[in-house]
Amino acid sequence: MTIIVYPVGQGDLRNDIVGLSKSERQEAQGEAEQQVEKFLDDEDSEGLLKVLLEAPEEGSRFSAPPLSLILRALFPAEGERVVTVLLLASRSGDSGTRTWKIGELLKKALGLAGVHDGLRKELRLDVSVEMCEANLQETAGVEELAERLRCLVDSQNQTGDEPKVVVNAISGASMIALGAMGAADQLGLDWRAAVAPGAQKDTAVLLDRSSYDTAPFYWLRSLGYVEQARNWAQGRLARSSGRASVDVGSLDGLTDLMKRLATNPEFLKDEDLASLLALDMARADNGAGLIARAWVQKHYLDCHHKEIEAGMHTLEDLVTVAKRARGKLPMLGEIICAAQKRQQELKDECPKSVRWLLEHQWLNDVGKGAVHDLAAPSASDVKRALSLKEIDSCLPDWVARPEWRPGRGSVLFIAPCGAGAPRGMCVTERILGKEPDKKIRRAVPGAMLDGAESLPAEFLLLHSSYPGSKKTSLDAADAARRTQVHAGWKRHVSPSVDKRDFVDQRDYEGGDRNEYVATPVIMRSVSGQVALALEAKHPAAVVIVGTGQKAAVLGALQAAQAWCAEHATPLFLQTFVDKVDEEGRKESVSQLHRFALHNDAETALREAAISSLKSLNLLSAVRVLAAGDWRMDEMADRCDKLRQQLLDVANDKENPDRGAGVLIDLLQTVAGLWTEATELTKMRLAVVVAEALNFKTKGSNLLHRNNNLEGGSGNPINLARPYPKDCDKKRSKDKGPHQDLLEILYRVRNKLVVTHADDIVKSALQMVLQDLGGANIRTDSKAVSGDDVTYPDVLRLTCEKLEEAARALSITWASSTWKAEFDHLMSELKSLAHTREP
Q1: Please, what is the angle between helix 100-111 and helix 22-41, to 10°?
Q2: Which fold has domain 2-208?
Q3: Domain boundaries 411-595, corresponding CATH code
Q4: What is the pLDDT of residues 509-519, one digit of tens each?
Q5: What does 776-810 look like in DSSP terms, one character per residue?
Q6: Whole-structure pTM over 0.90, yes or no?
């Protein structure tokens, strides 16, 4: 079965409206409608088939009506093909753009038995017809179209035959055609665009929506999911041969490094930790600060030993100094304190290695207090870390960097410029004057981090050789330079020697205003221009703006799809409509579609999203899910909602206690994830827990840490003790076991050392408990050995004691569904991820 998604236009009545005034168009439309109505009244199937299939009178641009071009392209080599024509007709717009009546006439004509039989006889097509409203304001129209398409596809899937979809890009309003493409793409359908074939040809050209079946590999690799990228490539190779190859070998270095990190972290070298830190920073992973501290210490020691070998001094290394002073392995902060003392003692004679350590002590705080993103590093953290040559040089070029990387990182808007003057603002003004869409922010590396900079915008304006098109381009370029830019945007500044302007104008020739005839030529020319521009600019995201000639938009889209697939760059399609409010004022409304990766990418994307969820890297999960079809995009919205709820709670400075329900859900979620988590994931989860609970005491009566917590072998701490009755009194020393537990969770986070061989979190927990008395710590109604206390034990007991303290203090909070929603999202992803790829 084939579904033709068919925006209705004047050409369907064989009207050639180019060059006609508004009144002339209306007159021609009226005459054509009357003729079709007469054929319908007379049930004149022969007359109707002539309107539907045959060329208009001599002198017309059309070699055949648009529907005829598409139907002939579907003519089967043998047998018969079932075709459903889904007419998209508009009631909106002015009298010259409304197509509802034309749609009704087409529906009646195609539904007539004689017409049906005639198409079956001549083209071997079994044609049925449906119709839905396509509002020029796409949001409403596309939603209805998507639902109708979904129903048609689902009904056909039940027969075991997945339907193919063809979108009419020959006639009808460009906005409706582009919206239909976006809807088909987001539904994950196998769709193609039908375009005009050129002069004297009667069969439409069907543009394959190429799968670019290597795109999942490049996308996963760019996000730093090296294990998932390798697994996808190996699975793909096992399933079939003869497909385009991918550079799996490019992953060898990092995959080997990650294996060594998981099995023998104590043997990692300076450059190994630098590579891991670079990857963590590029991905903005939870726990990136832990790798940072491990690398700083290792790099300092390497520099120190090189100084010794070179005979520069004979000083003892600061790690040994701090260890002797403390009696155990020191934390980086203690090593830095020792460095400060050495600098005070030696002044100008202080070794270069010590000076380096003090200059880079800020890395000790990366992620440490980043509650704004729940332990994900801030934008400034990432920018500063990746600016270090020791770090950035270790990151492969194929890993996506945040937007500040020299030479790359803009959001590139590709806008074909039509011959007519724009109504209201130029397209560049409409874009720069409005806040960036959240879908674009999701897609650009680093744009969702706390403290992220404004997005750099760049324009590629495409015009034909026709004077009116050139003027539209010049006006748009001028508007881009003078318009007031929304705070979410900034004009892209090129770091290249020629300091190219952020507005690039290119002539694709194609001056023939008869676009219907010139479509193939225009598409080829535009596609070539866009391919060259993309290679030169290397944007972080690409937006095709649906303005100008339809053929130019399609040519730009073709080139962008190919380049974006290979370079793991998100691709969008944007249109604008003028919405009129109740007071009659016009407002420019943006409508944005993201082109999804092909269906065969979904399993790989889901696996990557599951991996991110398991370590509560919600930022990464959102970015991965947003690259899929409409179902995955909905999951991205739900994941982003979970992330935002945690951010709101973590940033509640006025009354942190009211978010305690969400935090308890978080602790219970981590406890549930613990059993299946790898050691590295456990480390990251412990960081999330500590940062989420790290509140200042002001404004909170419940979420306080007992930072004076002490204990000893002769004075065991009973963490399961009841909440003390007099704890609310200032003289009371015991403020409740929940404060002790919150402090323990925070101290565990500070004890985490990546280069410990095994049980990273368990070792840290045991160290904390030993400091507090070791074997006599109580986690239940009885004393148990500190070695037997697990991290989930502490989490669950913390939840219990927080709830107990809240009851005693009469603190209430809104019931939380955070854990239930997280579990549902994870369950849904796991069930879908087991579906075999096509």
Answers
A1: 20
A2: Rossmann fold (3.40.50)
A3: 3.40.50
A4: 876 556 656 78
A5: G-BSSSSB--GGG--HHHHHHHHHHHHHHHHHHTT
A6: no
